[in-house]
Protein: Nuclear receptor 2C2-associated protein
Amino acid sequence: RVSSVLNRDVKQFGKKHMFDGSEETCWNSDQGTCQWVTLDFPRTVRVSQLHIQFQGGFSSRLCTLEGCRTGEELVKISELYPADSNAMQISPSPAFQVEETVLDKLKVTFGNSTDFFGRVVVYHLGVLGERL
Structure:
């Protein structure tokens, strides 16, 4: 699930584009202050790395990761400080540390967008780890 899609145009800017492996497609949020992506995994996973690629000028200065097991409340895992660039950003790096966590649900909140209107554009979102 995602917080919003630009002009509700899911065909062109929907969440599926973060995971399709294409450099030509992206998820583009609508404007607003806190945008987010929630991932519900079909099985329990141990998350150890996050890969994210923004469009420069439409990135987030702060990404908060929250996670939980089924039936539990979300708990803060990490705060990440991505660069405002088009480059793929991979944890762990100095500003991009993900604490290894066992969970069934992961929420990435994009706070403090570099875009004046609060829009976020993500070309790739990858969560690495192992199924348990």
